[in-house]
Amino acid sequence: MSDSVKLSYNDQTFDFPLVEGTENEKGIDIKTLRAATGLITYDPGFKNTGSCKSGVTFLDGEEGVLRYRGYSIEDLCEKSSFIDVAFLLIFGELPTKEEQELFNKEIKNDSLVDEDLKMILKSFPKSAHPMGVLSSLTSALIAFNPSSVDVDSEADMREAIIMLMAKFPILASWTHRKIKGLPLNYANLSLSYVENIAHMMFKRPNEDYTPSPVVVNAINKLLILHADHEQNCSTSTVRVVGSSHAGLFASVSAGISALWGPLHGGANQAVIEMLEAIQKDGGDTKKYMAKAKDKNDPFRLMGFGHRVYKNFDPRARIIKKAADEVLSEMGINDPILDIAKGLEQEALSDPYFIDRKLYPNVDFYSGIIYRALGIPTEMFTVMFALGRLPGWIAQWLEMRKNNEPIGRPRQIYTGHTRRSL
Ligand code: ACO
């Protein structure tokens, strides 16, 4: 098999080397393309562009495979805690007992934010979307922790990572407490990372709160499933922002903004709003299927389709099962789940969806679980961000350690040619 690709242009032939990954994915290395030929590639949405080499996450969209550092998402969801998965993503291996204890201890030691951050939070209206607030507060962390990170120093980078892992859940839960009008609180150091997320979000000032195992298990699974997804929109954003040597907090803050959009992480909120609208409108799923297929109607079936999964999203399978478990364990009969299942059934046998390989994605069922846990709809994407944090960190760290060049695509200019005033 050839280890290069030939390109013919203007009666000349150019040779470009192939790059190959450990799972036999092949790409054409076009780093010298422009210098050799004067051409650039044109690939809106980067559908065929490999922006980096990465050893963090492998996914095979055709086979529905998702692995973090070689471990299947199914095994990790079954056997691991979110914080161990975070360690795995960031540092490359599952932690030993000592590493696990140290990581947890370091995070707990850093589980405070400057009290002045509360003033920033206070200045937002209650109606502010929590993703905007979370992005702003994450950015504000830079002002309160200004020392820059020397990326040649393992110790410096570790410190920044610990700080973010420790402080981010506090900020996320504060966005929730702001909506609910609850006083701001901190972690309870006797609880685990995921228990603390539940504790910080739901603890009321006048009641004891012990997070139920059902809630903790569900959040654990959801966070693991969202923890990384190779070069998606928000992760690419984190890497590109970091490539300018902006710091970790600034890069993650940008990632939060990218995640917010309804075509990315915001889809979980959009799914529930869509299901509620269908329910309010009499529950006629066929009507909405027809709208989704109508090219003159901008409506899309939210929670369906994925840029890379073209047979099924393995996360959706796990989530669907978890949604059934959580709802039955909590004794909740949510009519919205029936509408969701009805839509899925119809879509799976509809030629429009089959031909375009549109299947439920991770967000189709995650919102149903969040709803059952009592998390408000506008907080769903914040929950996604909590899960995605270790992935963003791992990808940022890899980008910095590889000393990747600044991300700066080119363009095909289509505006006016020179004109006079
Ligand atoms: N409902 C109806 N039609 C759809 C949908 C949908 N949800 N998704 C794609 N299509 C159609 C498009 O109209 C297009 O049809 P055409 O070929 O006749 O023009 C075709 O399927 C291909 O769609 P693209 O938008 O080109 O696919 P792309 O890979 O660019 O987009 C995306 C993927 C953004 C996820 C898209 O499927 C979508 O908008 N889905 C709904 C939003 C959503 O659920 N996002 C969450 C993604 S998962 C995540 O971020 C965690």
Query: In terms of structural class, how would the helical and strand content be classed?
Result: mainly alpha
> For the terminal residues, how far apart are their CA atoms?
57 Å
Tell how many strands the DSSP assignment holds: 6
**Strand portion:** 5-15%
Helix content: 40-55%
- Radius of gyration equals 23 Å
Q: Kindly state the mean pLDDT as a whole number?
A: 93
What is the count of DSSP helices, taking H or I runs of 4+ residues? 18
Question: What can you tell me about this protein's structure?
Answer:
This protein has 421 residues and is mostly helical. It contains 18 helices and six strands. It has helices at residues 33-37, 73-79, 82-91, 97-109, 117-122, 130-144, 154-180, 193-202, 213-226, 233-243, 248-260, 267-280, 285-293, 314-329, 335-348, 351-355, 362-372, 380-401, and strands at residues 4-9, 12-20, 26-28, 57-60, 65-68, 71-72. The strands form two sheets. A three-stranded antiparallel beta sheet has the order 1-2-3. A three-stranded antiparallel beta sheet has the order 4-5-6. The mean pLDDT is 93. It binds acetyl coenzyme *A (ACO). Acetyl coenzyme *A binds at residues 45, 263-265, 267, 292, 300-307, 356, 358, 361-363.
